[in-house]
Amino acid sequence: RPGERMARAEPPAASFERRVLRSAAEHHYLRVRLELPDGGARPSAAQFKQLVVSALRELHGEVGAALPVDVLTYEEKTLSAILRVISSGLVKLWSALTLLGCYQNRRCAFRVLQTSPFLLALSGNSRELVL
């Protein structure tokens, strides 16, 4: 009919849904390095593991010390290691390592170099890639 406006179908208003997906990975892996600025004796693999456990105990008590952490590799020469922890304990481990300040009454510091839910991601560092 003349004079009547044609009804136009309006498209539905765009709706946005925010989805946050937590990693479904069971474990997280950390590449860490222990820095001992004054040199001296270097910890063995067993002493390194004990240092990690004592860092957890110091910050989070006995519950933190019971967190399952595995030292997958350890190089005494470079004081670097790859640690495996259950994903729910990643923040506890990272904070405990960061706040640790001494080893055998000597100053020290843990540096977290890389972290990933995939062990393969720690096998190489793209920043050190030589073409």
From TrEMBL:
InterPro entries: Pop5/Rpp14/Rnp2-like, Rnp2-like_sf
Gene3D superfamilies tied to this protein: Ribonuclease P, Pop5 subunit (3.30.70.3250)
Assigned GO CC terms: multimeric ribonuclease P complex; nucleolus
Entry-linked Pfam families: RNase_P_Rpp14 (PF01900)
GO biological process, one term: tRNA 5'-leader removal
Residue ranges of coiled coil: none
Presence of the UniProt keyword tRNA processing in the record: yes
Any GO molecular function: ribonuclease P RNA binding
Annotated keywords: tRNA processing
Domain of life: Eukaryota
Sequence similarity: Belongs to the eukaryotic/archaeal RNase P protein component 2 family.
Designated name of the protein: RPP14 protein
Organism this protein belongs to: Nyctiprogne leucopyga
Lineage: Eukaryota, Metazoa, Chordata, Craniata, Vertebrata
Gene for this chain: Rpp14
